[in-house]
Structure formats: structure tokens, C-alpha cells
Amino acid sequence: MTENKPNYNIREYLAYLGAVALEDRKAVFVGTGLPIIAAMLAQKTHAPHLLIMFEAGGIGPNLPELPISVGESRTFHKGLIATSMHDIMSLSQAGYINYGFLGAAQMDRYGNINTTVIGDHDHPKTRLPGSGGAADVGSFSRKLIIIAAKQSKQTFVNKVDFLTTAGYLTGFGAREKAGLPRNTGPHRVITQIGVYGFREATKELEIVSLHPGETLEAAQANSSFPIHIPEVLETSPTPPPEYLRILREEVDPMGIVIGK
Amino acid sequence: MSITDKRGVPQSNVLLEGQGELIGWYDPDDARDWVIQNKSSQRKNNIVSIEEAVKKYIHDGDYIASGGFGHVRVSMAIVYEIIRQKKRNLVMAGKTAVHDLDLLVGAGCVNKVEAAYSFGHEMRGLSPASRRKVESGECVVAAETSNAGYQWRFLAGMMGLSFIPARTLLGTDTLNHSSCKVIEDPFTGKPVALIPAAYPDCAFIHVHRCDMYGNSQIDANSVEDFELARCARHLIITTEEIVDEELIRREPWRTIIPFMVVDAVVQVPYGSHPCEMPGLYYYDENHIAEWLDLSRTEEGTQQYLHKYVFGVRSFDEYMELVGGVRQMSYLKRREFLQEPMTAPWRK
User: Fold this and answer.
1) Interface pTM (ipTM) of the complex?
2) Test mutation, A136, A163, A177, chain B, max B CBs within 10 A
3) I need a surface site. Which of B6, B224, B260, B336 has the fewest CB within 10 A?
């Protein structure tokens, strides 16, 4: 490759790709970390009317700075309503959210996510926080977007140590069979290598676009399961300078999530 | 041959049963009887000291739940008092329990958790103290659930029902390790998750203001506190200020917790420090960073507790130690975006 070294780091790029996955005038249920950054960036750029919802009760805030918790006052700053978790979860269950936005520690080919334990549940090697709102967002979102910042053989696994949040479970039709609402499930998975979607027939992971300078070999080498390749493979978009400026100056000036 | 569950109840149409421990559940008739015998519509002055509230309403082995969310509107004053009184074998609702749970597990007060979101500090990273206790087996995760799952345990409890049906958790290990059951919905024929009611022995909730009876207002998102206040067997309210009943009666639509579910009222200005109290003061990031740093080791954890909990006699003395009026004015300016963001815990 003769690519010039990009003028952004990978976390900035993930935030940018997360932001462009969100359309204006749609509702997004946002989890902690990169998803907040991406939603803020979208709100300050192409999606000023993005309806941001936080599980602790904030709806429609105008985020003035990066909230550290999805329950704090920033999450309903100049918002429409500061309500309850019961309200947010009920609205979500009833169909009011378009996008869910989650991070993932471990994921399989069907987009099933683990954020509970690495190792055995009762004798964990590493105890992680658990579902939080993730299993709920994963159950109720029409389109779930997953940011898996560190794609590797250890994170893209054949079987998650613990299935915290439902992706497509065992494949096509399995969500509905389990009782989850129809027309829901993972839509995109964004990693440091590419953007992935799911094959309609099997609901298995398929690459949609490779980031500039990345290769199919790298995508496959960093996964324990085979990655499907579509007929048309695109290149992920390059962030316009204005997005990077807003991200660095307005969204996360301290580099808490995007790094320095 | 009839199938029964662990408690001997027939399971005619149960498709799946989570293997997690069923914590704090009662038959709704027993729950009603308890309310009838222990709660009263007779208003009385509920104001007590924090020592008294914790002594009277939190006992070793109890199932407890903390209000607010994560580092937001948490009754840290009660958390410190529980540690100070050396309560043991507590079971805690890990309903986005973060700083509160981390300290209580770290201090050895809580050794069993039902986890929705626990052992993490959101963007600040994972919780060294409570993770260490879980990974060593000193603290047991008896059941898993999700945030909606916990929320709806409280909802079922406040409604006097044994469960609430929901379309979350289905197909997951979270459900397999929960106390939920899955049945075929008799209306749709589709599988539906049944989330069992929860009745914590004691809940503690920090509010912006209340009167001496406990009628409480929260000037922010209520998170799970509307339901938690109503399902808990005992409820301690800590409050930034106690106001006259007249003020409550002027705007009754702002009352989120009515007196008849409240057992104790404790006035503790800044009682959520180092957590945020929306509209009043922001997180004390330096203090949280100090905890996150010290709690990396058992010695450091003890050092922190000795300095800020056992080493002070009251919450007022603690406030002096963490910077007093000067620090609180800073945190107030920070809450109103008049001071720049800080992230001292960032590695």
C-alpha cells in the first residue's frame, strides 16, 4: 500500500464511523464510551435532530460536554424529558428506538455479545460489568450497532464465554423463535479493520467495507471464525476535516475516549 | 408426572428456568401482609440520625438496594455509615450499582450480588476492589440480569405481582443465569420472559428535598427510584434539605415518593459526594480517582476506608476532610459547566 499515514487515530475513526451510521431524525439508545462520543459527533454534524435516549431517563438532550455516566445531568441537559428507566425501557420495548449502540468485549459470528465474564461464570478469569442495559438494547433495537474496538482472534470468537446480549443467536429466525421482537437485531459491527453487516440468509457476519489501508487478510487473520465476503466490497469513508475538528475540539477535547 | 421448580411449585407451561438465585422474592399475599403489618397511613415525623437509620433498618444478611444510577444521586452517606457500622453478609442489588457497590464489596460488607451492571465505573474503567473480590470468590454473583430486568423486578414488586412479563433477555446466558422463567405467552403463543418481583429488605435513596414525613422530590431523572421506593420493605430517604410540608403541598405533582413508603428521613447536605447530585454538584473526580487508585490493592482499600470512613465521626467531618465549602463550590460550578472537565483517573 502506498497510503499516507492517516491524520487520525483509530478511536477517532471508530467514533466517526459510528457517527455516520446514525441518520438524522431517528432515535438512538446510547451506551457508555465510544457510543456516546459517536452520538454527540453525529448531533453536532449531519444529524442535528438525532433523538438521543439514555437508559437512566434522559431523552433529547443537547449534550454540552461528554457525559461520564449515562445517568448524569448532562444526559438531559436542555432535554425534552428527564424520565425513568421504566419509561425508556418500555418505549424501547414498544418500538420507539431505531438504533441501539453498544460496545463489545467478545462477539461471535452472529453478533452475540459477551460483556459479563471472561472464563467460567462462577470462577471468572476476568469479571466484567455484566449486561447493564445491553441485553435490553440488543433485544429492542431495530438496528443494533456494535463497536468492537479491538478485533482479534480473542474478541471475534467461535463461542462467546457468556452470551450476555442476543445477536442473531444461532442464525436466521433464532431471535424470533426465542421470543425476541421481530425485525430487530445487529445491523453493523465496526472494528479497527472494517465495517461488517450480516448475511440475510444465515445472519452470519459479512464484511461491508474495509478501512483505508486494511486488507481482507487482516480481517480474516483477526477472527476465529470465517468472515464472509460480499460481491462488492467497499472502502470505509475518510473523515472530513470538519468532523475531526469537532470531535477533538468539542466532543472529547480531553481525549478521554478518543485518546490523545 | 408433574414437574415442579426448586420450591415445589408446579411448572406446567414453563419452557425455561433461569438457574440464578431468586433473591428477595415473596408470594404477593405475603408481601401484602407485610405491608399491612408494617406500613402505616398515619403520618409521623420520620427524621432520625444516620446512625439510627442504618442501625434500625439494615441488618447483617439483608438484601439492600441503593437509589440513583452509577455515580449519580447515590446516598453515599448511607454507604459510609453501613461500612462504619461493619454490617456483614449483605446481598446487594447490582442495578447499575457502581461506586456504592464497589465500596461496600471492597469494605467486606456485601458478599453477594445480583448483577445487572456491577464492578465497573462506566467510562472510568473497571472497579479494582469489587472485581478482585469476585475473582477470588469472596463475593458471589448469585444471579445475572439486565438493567430493564432489575427495573422490572422492582415494578412487579411495587405492583404487588409475582412477576412482570418482558421481551428482553430471551435467548441469552444472562437469562440462563437469572431468576427469570420463560413461558409461552397465552395471548401470542410466543415465548415471553417472566421477571420475578423483588422486595429489598432496605433501600436508601438520596433526594433533593423532602418533608419530615418523607414526601420527596427529585429534580432530575428518577431512574428506578419510583418503583424501588414502593417495593422496598424499608426505605431510608437521605435528603439535601428538609422542607415544610406546605412546600410539598404547593406542587404535589413534583412528589415522586409519598410518605407512607418511607421509614426514615435523614438530612445530609452533599450526601451524594463524591457522586453527582444533578443541578447541585458534579462528581468529585479527584476523590473518585483516589479511590480507584488506592483500591488497586487490599492495603490501599483499607487505607482509603481508614482515612475517609473509620477516621471520621460524621458526614460533616468527612465533608471537611474532602475540601469543605471550597470544594463544594467548585463542584457546583463544575455542575453548571463553569469549570473545565477533568479526568484524573485516566491512565
Assistant:
1) 0.96
2) A136
3) B6
